[in-house]
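Exam prep: given the inputs below (a chain plus (3R)-3-hydroxy-8'-apocarotenol), describe the expected output before reading on.
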Amino acid sequence: KSQSPNVDPLDSKSYSREDWKQGYQSQPEEFSYWIDEIDGEIPPDLCGTFFRNGPGLLDIHEQPIHHPFDGDGMICKIGFKDGRAHFQNRFVRTKGYVEEREAGKILYRGVFGTQKPGGWLANFLDLRVKNIANTHVIYWGEKLLALWEAAQPHRLDPESLETVGLDDLDGLLESGKAFAAHPRIDPACAIDEGAPCLVNFAVKPGPKTTIAIYEFDPAGNLRRHHEHSVPGFAFLHDMAITPNYCIFFQNPVSFHPLPYFLGLKGAGQCIRFNPKAPTKVIVIPRDGSSQVQIVETEPCFVFHHANAWEENGKIYIDSVCYESFPSIQEDGDFREVDFDALPEGQLWRFEIDEGRETVGHQVLSRRCCEFPVLHPARVGRPYRYLYLGVADRETGNAPLQAVMKWDAETGDRQVWSAAPRGFGGEPLFVPRPGGDGEDDGWVLLLVYDAARHGSDLVILDARAIASGPIARLHLKHHIPYGLHGSFTPE
Ligand code: 3ON
Ligand code: FE
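Solution:
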């Protein structure tokens, strides 16, 4: 393995910051080519399309943005067929992306602190929201949609990745309503006679928060829609589902928007964590029939849930939990972040007992993790295997450099690490067609390799993660660290 000139072998770190930073360079170019530099072999039965979204630009014509979550959405698409793979990437042509490219400068403020040049006066009372379409990408109901939780989705052409435009889901999102970036697919919806169903939500935060639930059949038709109001401000990035419920974690945060109005901070920087208030677990019946239940648990912050299920009259939820909100620094470069000063995400299990008002938890794994995924057939059901992006080291907060397969039955862990010079993100589990068993399939992971300033698509055998890649596809360029992706089988 190539050793980074910057990793001090006596240091306890598994990476150098210089290496990690390079993965946050913009990738302004758009490519389309057959991948021909491959170590190992692509499994011939791996067929379908991997779509992934994430910030493609970390600067607008050399004006840096304040945080990666403010970066314009860029879709990567890797198509697999007959043991070959084709790469393509394209920016979502959002209104803001197109205008800023023409102007050659930042024209919009970002939620996470990006400001227009010219100081606070230039930003004062500019409350327009730039829909950057950068968080997730899914193919459902014959539509490819790029998602960003505070606005409407953008529809893309699944072949060319060209932007068709904003999509209101056949009039459902009238007057520019939002559509969250974390849909869940129920593989066999009990309410729909066992047909698959896509469940998503939309949040309208305020002194009271409105949560809308939408469920769609495989053709993209709306099956269910109901809205609920819960007390207090809520920042709900993700949700978990079971056959009967949608579950949200209302983290103990409050919103103090004055600096946002004044042009001093982004809206997301005006969120404050309250370590003394409980986290509230919101349980919404999916058929919309009965009451919403709200139960309390210890203060913690959750972006992502791994899974939830119902068993013996209880509801279980596995989530990546932070001790407090990893708030966004005010000044300076996010690339200089002090990892040690921020809490790491850890895997926790919550158990909701019927009739109880509080929820207990158990820590499943302390290792720094994010982006939990599982077999699509186990979503909302009891499951055994979880795949997560994790740090190379067992303890402490650090960039994600490895993938961990966690066995819920035995507690076993298998890890493959790209350290010291490789950096990962969200893994994706793809079941083998006709396979048997929950871990019969592959784990796909985009790895940024600082040794060559390029990215690789790594394919692991889900049954032998620790044995290392069965194929490593070298892209001709790098892709900045991204957010979420999905896989559409042939
Ligand atoms: O009233 C406010 C208005 C508003 C527009 C409330 C608000 C802050 C909820 C809001 C908007 C929120 C948005 C747009 C959130 C977007 C989140 C996003 C793009 C990404 C979140 C990512 C989460 C994680 C955990 C990423 C981890 C990344 C790594 C470990 C690095 O690879
Ligand atoms: Fe997310």
